[in-house]
Amino acid sequence: MKKHDPGAAVAVGESEAAIGSNGDSQSSETGVILASLLTMRDGDFSVRLPGTWTGLAGKIADTFNEIVAANRQMARELNRVGQVVGKQGRTMRFHGSRGSWGDIEVSVNTLVEDLLRPIVEVTGAIAAVAQGDLTQTVRLDVDGLPLE
């Protein structure tokens, strides 16, 4: 994945006009912000804005860095969930998610649990039959809707 150099001028669209080319501090900061946003958009969550900026630019940098860190953590957690579900057949809860991040967490866990539940039930019934236990059953509906 190509990384953008946050200190470099960034061409916008098809034009060669670059943000930050006039040399003033605000334009330079804007160019760095744009380059960092493009890097994050491309999936590189290691990008950070300088923590030394002050004023409005400093607040923007701090907020950007928090958002990128949250995206990086979500990517790590989704990777971990995929490994845990694939190897252990279970999920674990994330902690500390706020707002829409918490909603995403709940949605992912609900999806995984909904996908696993029928598989676990069928696996349990097959294992019981293999051991001669013909009393095991499998639900034929999910939330009142018949399985097809």
Would you give an account of this structure?
The protein has 148 residues and is mainly α. The protein has two domains: 1-92, no CATH class; 100-148, no CATH class. Helix content is 56%, strand content 5%. The protein is built from three helices and four strands, in the order E-E-H-H-H-E-E. It has helices spanning 25-41, 55-88, 99-130, and strands at 10-11, 18-19, 141-142, 145-146. The strands form two sheets. A two-stranded antiparallel ribbon has the order 1-2. Strand 1 (10-11) and strand 2 form a beta hairpin. Helix 1 runs parallel beside helix 2 (55-88). It is rod-shaped. Residues 1-21 have low confidence and may be disordered.
Unreliable runs: 1-21
How far from one another are the termini? 42 Å
Q: Helix-strand pattern, N to C?
A: EEHHHEE
Rg over CA atoms, rounded to whole Å, is 24 Å
Side-by-side strand order of the widest sheet? 1-2
Helix-strand layout with pairing:
Layout: E1 10-11, E2 18-19, H1 25-41, H2 55-88, H3 99-130, E3 141-142, E4 145-146
Antiparallel strand pairs: 1-2, 3-4
Helix pairs in contact: 1-2
Q: Can you give keywords for this protein?
A:
rod-shaped; mainly alpha; 148 residues; two-stranded antiparallel sheet
In short:
This protein has 148 residues and is mainly alpha-helical. Helix content is 56%, strand content 5%. The protein starts with 9 loop residues before the first strand and ends with a strand.
